[in-house]
Amino acid sequence: MSRPRGRGRSALVGVGLFLVLLAGGAVLALTSKAQQPPLTMAIPPPLLPAAPPLRSPHPAPAATVTTVGYDVSHPQCGRTLPTDGGFAIVGVTGGRPMSTNQCVGTQLRWAANKQGRAVYVNTGYPGVGDPVAYGRAVVDDAVARERAQSPSGTTAWWLDVETENTWAGTTQENATVLDAMAARLQELGVRVGIYSTPQMWEEIAGSWSPGLPVWYAIGPGSAAQAAAACSSELAGSSPALVQWVQDTSHDRLDHNLVCPAYRNRAGELFQLR
């Protein structure tokens, strides 16, 4: 059977042209994708929008204390406390927010005999309710408990930030609770700092750097290890104090060292006698 000339050649040309166009489109698509910037996940800010601003701590007149001191709270109830040491820090609460250290009155009187003294409050967040309101409420509760025993009040406070307490919010919510606590204490006219470890801080508060003095805990150790930790970092700051736990003849006791950068800045860490 005879067929028209050129039809087969035209068909082949058409198929070839289609394949060229198809390949060209694929190349253009791949080129376009290659030129697009990589997808990135938005990193949330460290604090919620409602978090109150903190004031930078104002300088205090140059002052020194004996560089080793102690901190105590409800675990030391009824025990003989050391007579040496240049400073003392007393836990107002009983291991968790809105609880009582039953010995706080006795311990505050002991601390008043030191060259410098301060108090600390346990922190946490149950994951429900407004973080700002909750943080302020924890501070108001602690201040009321402290002033029931020491009506004139203590002018240096530390926030005890540990994973042993309940932290059920996101790091952004947790950090906002701590920010609200610090802001409330500043409103009340007292100095405020942060106690924690780098691991606990990151787990609880993420990347937030409040710009406050920090009290760095190393756990069981020695004065030499505490001195070495003064060159570390916590919450974006170099330590002002380092705590280590030391076995004594009577009990395990928290010891603390003032770091070299704060040797003449005791008034930024303690209420001085």
Task: Provide a concise account of the structure shown.
This protein is an alpha/beta fold. It contains six helices and nine strands. Helix 3 crosses helix 4 and helix 4 crosses helix 5.
Tell me what you see in this structure.
The structure is a single chain. The protein is of the alpha/beta class and 273 residues long. It has a single domain (68-272), classed as TIM Barrel (Alpha-Beta Barrel). The chain is globular, with a radius of gyration of 30 Å. Helix 3 crosses helix 4 (171-187) and helix 4 (171-187) packs across helix 5 (198-205). The model is unreliable at 1-24 and 26-33 (pLDDT under 50). The longest helix has 29 residues, at 7-35. 32% of the residues lie in helices and 19% in strands. Strands 1-2-3-4-5-6-7-8 form an eight-stranded mixed barrel, surrounded by four helices. It contains six helices and nine strands. The N and C termini lie far apart (119 Å).
